[in-house]
Amino acid sequence: xxxxxxxxxxxxxxxxxxxxxxxxxxxxxxxxxxxxxxxxxxxxxxxxxxxxxxxxxxxxxxxxxxxxxxxxxxxxxxxxxxxxxxxxxxxxxxxxxxxxxxxxxxxxxxxxxxxxxxxxxxxxxxxxxxxxxxxxxxxxxxxxxxxxxxxxxxxxxxxxxxxxxxxxxxxxxxxxxxxxxxxxxxxxxxxxxxxxxxxxxxxxxxxxxxxxxxxxxxxxxxxxxxxxxxxxxxxxxxxxxxxxxxxxxxxxxxxxxxxxxxxxxxxxxxxxxxxxxxxxxxxxxxxxxxxxxxxxxxxxxxxxxxxxxxxxxxxxxxxxxxxxxxxxxxxxxxxxxxx
Length: 339
Ligand SMILES: NC(=O)c1ccc[n+]([C@@H]2O[C@H](COP(=O)([O-])OP(=O)(O)OC[C@H]3O[C@@H](n4cnc5c(N)ncnc54)[C@H](OP(=O)(O)O)[C@@H]3O)[C@@H](O)[C@H]2O)c1
Known about the structure:
The protein has helices at 14-22, 45-48, 59-62, 86-98, 121-124, 145-154, 182-185, 196-207, 250-258, 263-266, 288-291, 319-335; strands spanning 4-9, 29-34, 79-82, 102-105, 139-141, 161-170, 210-212, 215-217, 223-229, 236-244, 277-279, 297-305, 308-315.
């Protein structure tokens, strides 16, 4: 199997650090370039990064000299992995694409562009198939972290659902390393996250819909979202009420969630969780401090009254919601012989 050479943009940020960590000793992906903001270009990664995530800086990354985001610095890699801030990513990624460089990106610009696959591998790996008819290089987007987490338990239930009502409880790390001041969030809940509700609605509709070359047909279900920021470091939760097309037995819902498997599991891809949706039996689960799994989504409080299903969902916003998906998408593309 040929190896995949990648560079990471935004490698010193929270998502970038997770990519650096998850790619240590990867069986077929090699990190050859790391990039950060202009002021850090030329410095050793180990000196420039404020390492914030669990464990030490991987040995392989310490001596890599940080490069810019300019295409010339990335011309000898197979894929650029982007973890740039949204406001920087649009122009940088367009420039890379125009220079013939393939990009998988965590940032929001172009997520809803008709011909750009928005991929959460277990949910819609098949949307990658449109790349077979793409001439030249390509852009693949990761969904918003909350949309990534919520779409996992919705996938096995999608044909039963009429509409969704969702309240999210999103952790502080979702806003990035410098995203939110301690004073703003300590002992507080902020019932507004700019742009988040629209992203969750539109992106879930895209992922659960049908993708064809150059276009997509949304799933077409109304999704009413209220997003809140809570004083938790890691892990996004969501309380979901799904109005079902008809009443359903709770055990059938739980079985559908527990038995959900997709291509990443069948192909035993290195980053794929064995059980993508974990239904927890504990009455007070899931909790960010106890139940956070890097790549699986945890579900608890499952109940069905008449035709309304309630469940509480928890996932790791930095891994399942960002860095882990990027890598699982690359592994899926390699399995599908798209790279
Ligand atoms: N946090 C999450 O839970 C999450 C989840 C899903 C998706 N995302 C998305 O992933 C992306 C990264 O998020 P994050 O939380 O990792 O952000 P972050 O912690 O703020 O990191 C931003 C990274 O971008 C670099 N950067 C900033 N300005 C730059 C510029 N002008 N040129 C080149 N590099 C620049 C920073 O480098 P320096 O260290 O040099 O400043 C840093 O490496 C965002 O688009 C975000 O929306 C985040």
